[in-house]
Amino acid sequence: MLHAAPPLEVGGSGAAHTRCLLRDRGGHGAVPADPFPLYGDDAATTKFLLERILRGSSIAPYLPSSAASSSTAAVDADSAEREDEDTGEPASGLVPSAPVRGDGTTDASGAGAAPDTALQRPLESAASAPASCLPAILGPEGRILIVANRLPVTVKRLGDGWDYADSSGGLVSALRGVTGVKMTWVGWPGVSIPDKEEQTIVMNKLTSTMRCVPVFMDQELVDQYYSGYCNNILWPLFHYMGLPQDYRFNKTKDYKSQLKAYEKANQMFADVVCQIYEKGDIVWCHDYHLMLLPSLLKKHDIDMKVGWFLHTPFPSSEIYRALPNRMNLLKAVLKSDLVGFHTYDYARHFVSACTSLLGLESYLEGVEVEGRIVKVEAFPIGIDSSKFKDTLELPEVKAKIADFKSIFAGRQVMLGVDRFDMIKGLLQKVLAFEKYLEENTGMNEKVVLLQIAVPTRSDVPEYRRLASQVHELVARVNGRFGTIRTTPIHHLDQTVDFPELCALYAVTDVALVTSLRDGMNLVSYEYVACQESNKGVLILSEFAGAAQSLGAGAIIVNPWDTAEVANSIKAALTMPAHDREERHRHNYELVSAHSEQDWAEDYVRELHKTATKAPVHTKQPIVVLPIEETTSRYAQSRSRLLILGFHETLTEQVQSFERGASDQTASMKLKLNPEFKGPLKTLCDDEDMTVIVVSGYGRIILDENFREFEMWLAAENGMFLRRTTGEWMATTTEHLEIGCSDSVKKVIEYFTRRTPNSYLEQREKSFVWNYKYSDDDFGRNQAKEMLQHLGSYSSSNRSADVVQGRRSIEVRPVGVTKGNAVNEIIKELGRRRKSKNITTPIDFVLCIGHFLAKDEDVYTLPYFIQRASKRKAKAGQEDCTSIMFDDLKAENYFSCTVGRECSLAKYKLEGTSDVATLLRSLANTEAALDISDHDGSQL
Prior knowledge:
Largest sheet: 10 strands, mixed
Mean pLDDT: 78
Strand order of the largest sheet: 1-26-25-24-23-20-31-32-33-19
Distance between the termini: 46 Å
Low-confidence stretches: 9-130, 247-252, 614-619, 654-667, 867-877
Strand content: 15-25%
Structural class: alpha/beta
């Protein structure tokens, strides 16, 4: 309903401040979100200024203090990236049954990384969530095709037959908890089977009993594709290790052959998927092994629902650009409907690579390519914490715990659990422990570091050198600080079974993770899950993805800063009990509340929603509006509705703005193009015509330009409505406010000061930052940076939407759109027509404007796009709008965008001059009809 609006306030109204705890979408809402990691080259300056701004606002209590983490202040945008190909969970080598990649990292189909929920969604407790929500979404016949490099089953030759061993790990366990929907796996079985008959035997076994479809590759292809291009080129590059150092010009042939094998393998995967694909299936592609797959699948069926998820980090664009075929891989991935990553940093780097290398435009929701938005989001992983808790209750595990306590009696235990890998920071860990012992005399007999290093790729020279260096350093520390009774470091190059690992977690006082580049590193999650009794302290590298979720409860360190890590070890070992308990409580609640199954369901749900709903930026074959046909249809109609935008639709070609000398706000001097005054006057005076002008600008500007016409006005995207002969009315959304509006304004003012020729428009209920007069490249870069701030803000503060325009960014109350505004006016028209007993239905609608994507819902109102007579009114009620549009036929509804190539509208016009031509044509027709009616009445 409409009600009286408050008096006009030129300066806008202050919004009531609400609590604004920044949440990420992965359910890590208890972590205060520091905006610092979101910044680019000017990270340090931006962090300082933005924190100073925000600490003076209502957000201040929720910003992390600089003392909370010594590493946070040292992070820069690129060095803060978390590598997520390996989640660091024990299944990656600590559990004997877990499959391991050829490079020593866990495979996605085995123990590899599996992400969490999406980074901007409130946490849903696993305890309260239903077993699976997917059956209701996908239907009883819904099926998910999981396409990964490896199957969840490892096939091995056993005498004259074959052995089929189940694999365990992140992706497998995550999807095991998804019930009620069919799932089929596609992947390499782990062995080359050249004989066709044996392939058939293995195929039948896997498909009939295990819901797996194998992709058979010969050994040479596996060597070139998997060991070559995947693990020799992509894996090091994605982990910031660069291309292989022995990659020289004379190795070009080797590179090309590996790339050719990669392309061939991806095509083989695509062929198998297309053979089993059925309409309606969801295809979920995994990891860097299959970056070409989305493009190949879409060639088969453009409507196929395809998602791609990367289980490794995605490096910054400056690192990624070193890849020779960098653009082809990006273009192939962008054929997906949804692109997922473990952390926001990786998603941001992917978007940055797309914009810088491909020249594409980015939005809050993703990347625009070929007229559609490819959604890019972060989905971090959790663990099944109940599995660890239940294991700790087993009698044999309790016995192991007692045994370990006896072994380490009188000493504090520090634990490290890692693969023996370049990226795990083993050397840095031992060096930091050595420095701690140097600076803390006597602690060599009171503290022990137990390091479990699972051997990987022992045949690779670089890994052998690393092992030699670590062993030499461990021996040096033990030689310097060991005694006859004690050894400071217990280093084990071996796997540990799961019950023993849980027991070690339980007795550990400090867990030390010093990854140089890592994924989620679920070892940190597992340690927290096993520490409910001991309340141990977690020291966590800032370069591990888990630092983004466990940062508030852990001590975050830079593993390259040996002194800092040594000081953190001392702080952890001497931390008071109440501080240990508070830190643990935070992390324990987070780890317990969110599981790996939540991640799987969240991703599939988001993929289904993204692929099935009509994207706002869907490219359609938009044709030029046929003015003659439109005029003819207009002349044949009896009652008409004309919906017009204002800016860049009815305005003069040149606008100017005036910026205040003391602030960064500006007022637009928008003027109605004089060409429109005559046609608008004629159309508005027609009693059979209803004209609506809907705009994002405020009441004052609309009054100045349209007070002389008989029409409806919608200001600030529908927050205020009026008929020009009456008073302004407020919709039900008028009471909505932007939470923390002062903070939002200060952030926008900050970017206005640093972006020449940009300006802030403060309206009554919204803010708009416009950079149309700024340098193109610099303005776009500043806009992207601002979006990172405001995107985090809007996802946590549900009272505001951040809307990106072509050269502007708007923050408005949530749920406010031009479509909703027109809807309110139509309802009010229905009530007024009914009260006046006007029964002639509207049989012609023209909706035309240069609208933001957020507001293009105005083109899809159900009154216009379907026959009103087919809708059923609610029982006992008469639908006024149904009466209004009973005779509206599809051919009499014209939706038209102005100056846009991608739109939900059916037609387009190039600019305001074309709009003027159209309105003059309609006005001339109206004048001719009036003369005809007048002459007829004289007869």
